[in-house]
Amino acid sequence: MISTKRETHTLDASGIALGKLAANVAVILRGKNKPGFVKNVDAGDFVVVKNFAGVKITGRKFEERKYYRYSGHIGGLNETPLPKLMKENPAEVLRRAVYRMLPNNKLRDKMIKRLTVKQ
């Protein structure tokens, strides 16, 4: 049986690119940094990200990136630009980036719950 003893990893986001930070967080949440990694077992650790306000967003992504939500109704496509989302809820930017890097299966929702972002 695989051990699911969970540790807490604290990462400092200041000066790190958003994609690199999200990739590192996804690896830890999934448990790929452990020697006994098995893809069908949720053995990842907790992650606390501090100083997320200091994260680097490279290129023209800050001006051009948009996040979409669709309600399922006609005309129900909502778009939110990155500057507005960073102002209102910066933790959501990292959560969405990490969420899309996790595998699309039943374990993904459990993994993302172990992510905590502190401004």
Can you offer a commentary on this structure?
With 119 residues, the protein is α/β, with parallel strands linked by helices. The protein has a domain at 8-58 and 90-117: Ribosomal protein L13 (Ribosomal Protein L13p, Chain: A, Alpha-Beta Complex), CATH 3.90.1180.10. 34% of the residues lie in helices and 19% in strands. The strands form two sheets. The chain has a three-stranded parallel β-sheet, with helices on one face. Strands 3-4 form a two-stranded antiparallel sheet. Helix 1 (18-30) packs across helix 4 (90-101) and helix 3 (82-88) crosses helix 4. The longest helix is centred in the N-terminal third of the chain and has 13 residues, at 18-30. The chain is globular and about 45 Å long.
Keywords:
single chain, about 120 residues, alpha/beta, Ribosomal Protein L13p, Chain: A, 5 helices
Number of strands: 5
**Helix content range:** 25-40%
CATH topological fold name of the domain at 8-58 and 90-117 = Ribosomal Protein L13p, Chain: A
Judged by helices, strands and strand pairing, the structural class is: alpha/beta
Q: In summary, what is this structure?
A:
With 119 residues, the protein is of the alpha/beta class.
Question: Layout of SSEs?
Answer:
Elements: E1 8-12, H1 18-30, E2 46-50, H2 61-64, E3 66-70, E4 77-81, H3 82-88, H4 90-101, H5 108-112, E5 115-117
Parallel strand pairs: 1-2, 2-5
Antiparallel strand pairs: 3-4
Helix pairs in contact: 1-4, 3-4
